[in-house]
Amino acid sequence: MTYDDFMNQPKRRDKAATRAALLDAARLRFARQGFDGTGVRDIAADVGVDPALVFRYFGSKDQLHEEAVRKEIPTGLTDDPTRPLTHITDTLLHDVVFADWEQFDGEHPLLVMLRSAGRPAIRDQLRTQICEGYLPDFAQRMGGENPALRAELVGALLLGMGVMRSLLDSPALRDASFEETRTLVARLVATLTS
């Protein structure tokens, strides 16, 4: 084989690296523009590949979105059934409201999903992650009267704070420290759990 033949051979692509790059590009696009504002061609262009690779690796834009914004409950967060709910909400307050999720343009994946919650499939995915992921564990820790309702109120508090701070850029919550906010949230959660 000559040097020219070697140089003209099709370049091999690292499938895992390309797939990971597509997920990274999709996360940023979905965070900034939502589902409807993001095109498969744009994601592919960000990575420098043919849009057909998006469909080869993910099947559809819907499946790409689902995989790109999936965020499971942090490992071990609810493993210990005796762990107080205030400790769990501290972690979620930090992760959902205060953490800088660089790969999602600074926002938690649940907030990224909210940008596209008008789409039934995304709304169902969001409901599944929250209502079947976090909230049943909250309710089990509460016991007493109406534990499911009180658990949903805690979930609404955390998600609403994320919306206020990240999506709406509300000044008081934006400027508040994690510690200051954590103290107030702990009081609210204590009221709901008693």
Structure description:
The protein folds into two domains: 11-69, Arc Repressor Mutant, subunit A (Orthogonal Bundle); 85-193, no CATH class. With 194 residues, it is mainly α. It contains eleven helices and no strands. The longest helix is centred in the C-terminal third of the chain and has 23 residues, at 120-142. It is 69% helix and 0% strand. The model has no long low-confidence stretch (mean pLDDT 82). It comes from Nonomuraea mangrovi. Residues 16-76 form the HTH tetR-type domain. Residues 39-58 bind DNA. InterPro entries: Homeodomain-like_sf, HTH-type_TetR-like_transc_reg, HTH_TetR, Tet_transcr_reg_TetR-rel_C_sf, TetR_C_16. This is TetR/AcrR family transcriptional regulator.
